[in-house]
Design a protein that fits this description.
Structural class: alpha+beta
Number of strands: 4
Distance between the termini: 83 Å
């Protein structure tokens, strides 16, 4: 009785058919033409053009190195908080300013100026502020630590948001630029005023880093001094 010969994997595979000359020749000519155009473009243009084309447009204003990258859906430079409200937000890549104004010629108040990220502040100091908030708001924690009324009062006075430490001239500048933005009627003037406002906010954020760090460090030290060493040990044992 004859035995059948096993079929190998290589024998079972079908061999690819050669590319038809009617398809291969145009593809070759297309590749040669594209390569020739690229060579002509590279020789006839300057080096800066090459870098701009390859790298894409770059921002003229570098970001603070401690901030996170801007998200793809970043907020617009100027945005109303509520559709019919009088509170507006000015956004730069590094910071945001809350401005209240009812319209052109109306009083202007800069409510707050904040960094988009406070990663430049040591984590230990931020944790101290978070601890003060927890202790000051959680009656059970405060009772377990045997805090006095005076200790609670001190802690609660130190639990505000970190915020950016600015100078009055900075606030005055933002107020003046916002008035210019509101007064601008033409689209080109509006865009120019917006650019000045955002650039000013960026500059204020950068020069306020060290004062902000100093203010946070001072507040963290004051919070630590409110509780005794034993109370902090008890709080740590609870788990922050």
């Amino acid at each position: 009785m004859m035995q059948s010969t096993p079929t190998t994997m290589n024998q079972s595979q079908t061999q690819p058919k050669p590319l038809s000359p009617w398809i291969a020749i145009p593809l070759i000519l297309l590749c040669l033409g594209g390569g020739g155009w690229m060579a002509h473009w590279y020789i006839s243009t300057d080096q800066l053009t090459h870098e701009s084309t390859v790298l894409g447009p770059a921002s003229n204003t570098p970001t603070l190195r401690f901030n996170r990258p801007a998200p793809a859906d970043a907020a617009p430079p100027i945005q109303r908080q509520d559709p019919n409200g009088n509170v507006w937000w000015v956004h730069s890549r590094d910071a945001a300013a809350m401005i209240e104004s009812a319209g052109k010629g109306q009083p202007i108040t800069v409510r707050a100026v904040n960094y988009n990220s406070y990663q430049f502040v040591p984590q230990e100091q931020r944790n101290m502020i978070f601890a003060a908030r927890r202790i000051g708001r959680d009656q059970t924690v405060a009772k377990n630590l045997n805090l006095t009324n005076d200790q609670l009062r001190q802690l609660r006075s130190l639990t505000g948001t970190i915020g950016m430490t600015t100078q009055q001239p900075d606030i005055d500048l933002l107020t003046s630029l916002w008035a210019q933005y509101q007064a601008a009627d033409q689209p080109a003037d509006k865009l120019a005023a917006q650019s000045k406002l955002v650039d000013a906010l960026t500059e204020i954020a950068r020069k306020s880093v060290d004062p902000t760090k100093a203010a946070v460090a001072d507040r963290a030290a004051k919070i630590k001094a409110v509780l005794t060493d034993d109370q902090w040990k008890q709080f740590d044992a609870m788990g922050r």
